[in-house]
Specification:
Length: 122
């Protein structure tokens, strides 16, 4: 399972780099999608590592956190909840939901980077 864990971690890191690049180019909706995807994959890495099984085929960040058995700080749990809707919002857009401004997306990137570092070290 170690190779599978490494796959999820490396893929998560690649998605985070993509999110940064998209944010720098002003593609905020797409950056949010990739931030969220990076966190999803990091959580799946933890599930593989801790449970020695393939991760479930679901995408809900709060549910993946629950399955992983990890205990996160409240602000990290809130980040997952805030980014969860950007799976579909990132892929298809949402005529009702407003894309956050540059500063908010930048804050999400910073907070996600800290959480990703934490998840890698667990």
């Amino acid at each position: 399972m170690e190779r599978r864990t490494e796959y999820w971690i490396e893929s998560s890191q690649e998605d985070y780099i993509a999110a940064r690049t998209l944010e720098e180019r002003g593609h905020h909706r797409q950056a949010l999608f990739f931030i969220r995807l990076a966190l999803e994959k990091a959580l799946k890495a933890q599930i593989v590592k801790r449970m020695q099984t393939l991760p479930p085929r679901l995408h809900d960040l709060t549910r993946l956190l629950e399955i992983s058995g990890l205990e996160l700080e409240p602000n990290d749990q809130e980040l997952l909840e805030q980014l969860n809707p950007w799976l579909l919002g990132g892929m298809y857009g949402d005529p009702v939901k407003k894309v956050p401004d540059l500063y908010t997306v930048h804050d999400y990137l910073r907070d996600a980077e800290e959480l990703l570092d934490c998840l890698k070290g667990v």
